[in-house]
Specification:
By secondary structure, this protein is mainly β. Helices cover 10% and strands 40% of the residues. Strands 1, 12, 13, 14, 15, 16, 17 and 18 form an eight-stranded mixed sheet that branches. Strands 2, 3, 4, 5, 6, 7, 8 and 11 form an eight-stranded mixed sheet that branches.
C-alpha cells in the first residue's frame, strides 16, 4: 500500500498495551530511499523527548483514527534509540554550529517551543552519537564530523526545491511510501503554475542540504494523477 508520509505526522502511536506519543518525523536514507526510523514524540509526561523505531514494527495504519499500531510495548518504545543518537543531516549541521558557537539549536527543546517555554540546554554527553550507530564522514571542506550524511528527515526534505538539470520544477510537497518494501517510491512535487508532478525516487540524482535542493535526472517527472 502506498502512503503519503507527511500525512503520518501527528498520528497517535498505539503500542500493544496502550497509546503512547505521536509520529513527529520519518527518517530515510537518501541513497537507497528506504525508511530507517519513525521519530515518535512521547506523551505529556515526557514531552520534548523523541525516540526512533524501525518501520518494521508497524502493524497497520488506522487512517480514520489518525493512528498507527506497532508491535512494541510502551516500555519498549520508551527504551528505544533516543533521537539525539541518530540525528538527520540537518540536525548534524546544527550540532556542528552549536559546538562552534556554543549556542542552543532551535530543536534542542523539541516541542517546548509550542508551549512558549525556554528550551533546555542539552547535556553534551547526550549529543554524542551512539556507538556503532553512526559513523564519521568528511564534508566538502575536508572536516570530519560524526553521523550518517545520508540520513534525511522527511519533514526537512518536504520543503526542498526540485531541480532538473538547472530547471526548477517546484518544491517537494510529499513523499510516497510503500509499506511492503519500507521504501520511498516517489516524490510529489508542487509546481508553480501547472499541477503536481510525481518524480520516481530512482530518478533522484542527489540531495543537497546546503542548497536545500533535490536534483533529479532530465525527463524523470510525470504529471500527478
Amino acid at each position: 500500500m502506498k502512503t503519503h508520509l507527511r500525512q503520518l505526522f501527528g498520528h497517535r502511536v498505539h503500542a500493544t498495551d496502550g497509546k503512547i506519543g505521536r509520529i513527529r518525523d520519518v527518517l530515510f536514507d537518501d541513497r537507497t530511499w528506504t525508511i530507517r526510523y519513525l521519530a515518535i514524540e512521547l506523551g505529556v509526561w515526557l514531552i520534548g523527548r523523541q525516540v526512533l523505531v524501525p518501520p518494521r514494527v508497524i502493524r497497520r495504519l488506522l487512517s480514520a483514527e489518525r493512528a498507527v499500531e506497532v508491535s512494541l510495548t510502551r516500555e519498549q518504545i520508551r527504551g528505544s534509540l533516543d533521537a539525539l543518537s541518530a540525528p538527520p543531516l540537518s540536525r548534524q549541521e546544527e550540532l556542528r554550529l552549536l559546538s562552534e558557537r556554543e549556542g542552543v539549536p532551535h530543536w534542542a527543546g523539541y516541542g517546548v517551543w509550542a508551549l512558549g517555554m525556554v528550551p533546555f540546554a542539552p547535556n553534551p554527553a547526550a549529543l554524542e552519537p551512539a556507538a556503532g550507530r553512526t559513523r564519521e564522514h568528511a564534508g566538502p571542506d575536508g572536516q570530519v564530523s560524526a553521523g550518517d550524511p545520508h540520513l534525511r528527515s522527511v519533514r526537512e526534505v518536504a520543503t526542498y526545491r526540485v531541480v532538473d538539470i538547472g530547471w526548477e520544477l517546484g518544491r517537494v510537497d510529499d513523499l510516497l511510501f510503500d509499506d511492503e518494501s519500507s521504501s520511498i517510491t516517489a516524490l510529489i512535487v508542487r509546481e508553480r503554475q501547472r499541477g503536481g508532478l510525481v518524480v520516481p525516487a530512482t530518478a533522484v540524482d542527489h540531495v543537497s542540504f546546503p542548497e536545500r535542493t533535490v536534483f533529479v535526472k532530465l525527463g524523470a517527472a510525470a504529471p500527478a494523477t
